[in-house]
Amino acid sequence: MSGTKKLNVAFLTTYPPRECGIATFTQDIINELKKSTSVKTGVIAITDQPMHYGEDVRLELKQHDRTSYIETARKINRSDIDVLVVEHEYGIYGGECGEYLLALIELLEKPIVTTLHTVLPSPSDKQREILKQLCAKSEKVVTMAMNSRKVLEDVYDVDSSKIELIHHGVPDLKLPERDELKKELGLENRIVISTFGLISPGKGLEYGIEAVAQTAKKHPEVLYLILGQTHPVIRKQHGEVYRNSLEKMVRELQAEDNVRFVNRYLTKEEIIRYLKLSDIYMTPYLGKDQAVSGTLAYAVGCGRIIVSTPYSYAKEMLADGRGLLADFEDSASLSECINYVIEHPERKKQMEQKTKLLGDNMKWSVVADCYRRTFYKAYREYSKKERVAV
C-alpha cells in the first residue's frame, strides 16, 4: 500500500493481562499488524479492575462506568486516531447487554470497524437494538463465519455492502510433529483427545468426559486432556463448583487413567503444542447458536480432526468432510464419532488433510492482510461521506 496514508488504528477491546478470549484475539492481530508499515496500532482497554498494561494500551475505559464511555469518545475525537475497531461481545461492555457502548459510539466522530464475536439469530429486543445501532454507525462489520451474514441482514438490518467475512486468525508456530510431541510428554502409546479454553458450564465437558469413559471400554489407550482454568467470571461468582463436579464425575466413572485436567491459563505456544500432539479435538458445546469459536478455529489451524456438537460455527468449519458432528447433550453420539476416527485411520488422514487446507487460510498473516484492507475501505468511505457533508 505504498503511497497511501499510514493509518492510526485503535482497538476498543479487553486486553492482556485480562484473561479473556477477545483479549488474546486482539493481541494476536495487533502483533501481526505491527509487522506492517501501513498501519499503526494501539489499544483502548476495557477494564473491570486495576490492570498493569504494556505499551500497546493508550487509554483505559472503565467497563461499568457510563461516564467513562462518554469521556473516552471525546478523547478519541481529539486524538490522531484514524479508525476505531470495536471488538464486540455483549458481556465485555457495561450496562444491560453492554448498552453503555452506545453512549460512546453516539458521540464518536471517527470511522468504526466492528468485529462481531457473537451474532445471535434470536436476540432479545435489547440485544438486537444494541447491535443494530452499532452496525448502523459502523463503516464495516466483520463477521468470522459465513452463517452470520444472512442473520446480520435479516435480523439486524445490516446493509450487505458493509459486511466483511474474515476468518478467526490462528497462530503459525513451527513445532515438531505429533509423534515427537507425544514422546516429550510420555504419551507415545496414547490416543489423545483435547479440549481447551476457559472452563464454564456451557462447554458441555461432562458429556465429553462420559464419551471418553465409554470409548475407553473399547480403546483403553484413549486420553482426554481438558486444558485451561475456570473462566474468571465463573470463578468469581461460583468458585470451582463446575470443575469440582467434573473431577467428581471422572472418579465416579473410574476414568482417572483416561481424563486429565491441566488447570492453568495456557500460553499460545502451550495451546498449539497440545493441539498438535492431539489426535482429535473435541468441542461438546451446548449452545446451538454459537457463531464463532476461537478454540475450534485454533484446532482447524493445526489441521486436527474435530468431533463436535452441531453448533453454528462447527457446522460451517466441519463441512465437506473436515470432521464429525455428534448430537447435543449425547455422550454416546460423541463416543461413536471418536470410535469412528480411531478405527478408520485412512479416513482420519483424509479429514486432517482437508482441515489443514482450510486452516492454512486462517493463519494470522493472511487474516491481518484482510483486516488491513478493511480498515482502508472504512477510512476511505467515511472520508468520502465527510466531504459530501461539507
Protein model, in words:
By secondary structure, the protein is of the alpha/beta class. It folds into 2 domains: 7-169 and 363-389, 3-Layer(aba) Sandwich (Rossmann fold), CATH 3.40.50.2000; 178-360, Glycogen Phosphorylase B (Rossmann fold, 3-Layer(aba) Sandwich). It is 45% helix and 17% strand. It has helices at 21-33, 66-78, 100-107, 125-137, 147-155, 178-184, 205-218, 232-238, 241-252, 268-277, 294-301, 312-317, 331-343, 345-360, 364-389; strands at residues 7-13, 39-47, 57-62, 83-88, 112-116, 140-143, 163-165, 191-196, 222-227, 259-262, 280-283, 305-308, 323-325. It has a 7-stranded parallel sheet with strand order 3-2-1-4-5-6-7, with helices on both faces. A 6-stranded parallel sheet has the order 10-9-8-11-12-13, with helices on both faces. Helix 7 crosses helix 13.
Question: Helices, strands, pairings?
Answer:
Blueprint: E1 7-13, H1 21-33, E2 39-47, E3 57-62, H2 66-78, E4 83-88, H3 100-107, E5 112-116, H4 125-137, E6 140-143, H5 147-155, E7 163-165, H6 178-184, E8 191-196, H7 205-218, E9 222-227, H8 232-238, H9 241-252, E10 259-262, H10 268-277, E11 280-283, H11 294-301, E12 305-308, H12 312-317, E13 323-325, H13 331-343, H14 345-360, H15 364-389
